[in-house]
Specification:
Helices cover 76% and strands 0% of the residues. It is an all-alpha fold. The longest helix has 21 residues. The model has no long low-confidence stretch (mean pLDDT 80).
Length: 152
Amino acid sequence: MDIEHQIKKYYKQLCVYALHFVPDTAAVEDLVLEVFVDIWKSQAEVRDVKAYLFAAVRNRCLNYLRKQSLSRTGVDPEELAAEEPEDCAELEARIWSVLDALPNRMREAFLLSKRDGVSYEDIAVRLGISVHTVRNHIAKATKRIQRVLEKS
């Protein structure tokens, strides 16, 4: 297995997937890298690399949660293990790619609104733009994301 190729291909998707379990970005990055290190050390030949990586990351996250005695939104880690959100992680990675490609102000307005729940008025004040411009930024960003969703 060419580990460098697998890291380039799956690292971002695996991090997005792991964030479904562990809400700490730094911990997620460490957990995903630990999975790649373990595979590299073992030199194991894996038939379905993608499935193996997602399962290994899921298990690593669940072990982390058990050790930390944390549970995201009160959900039992075992219940999360039953989910198979690999496809969701791929879609989320594509959405984040779209967001990364947005102009800075547009991305910032969209994330403040949708991720952080900030009102349009407060976003306008923070960014020094009009409420009308905030609406336009969010509408354009939403349309771009919808195009990605329609393709999936």
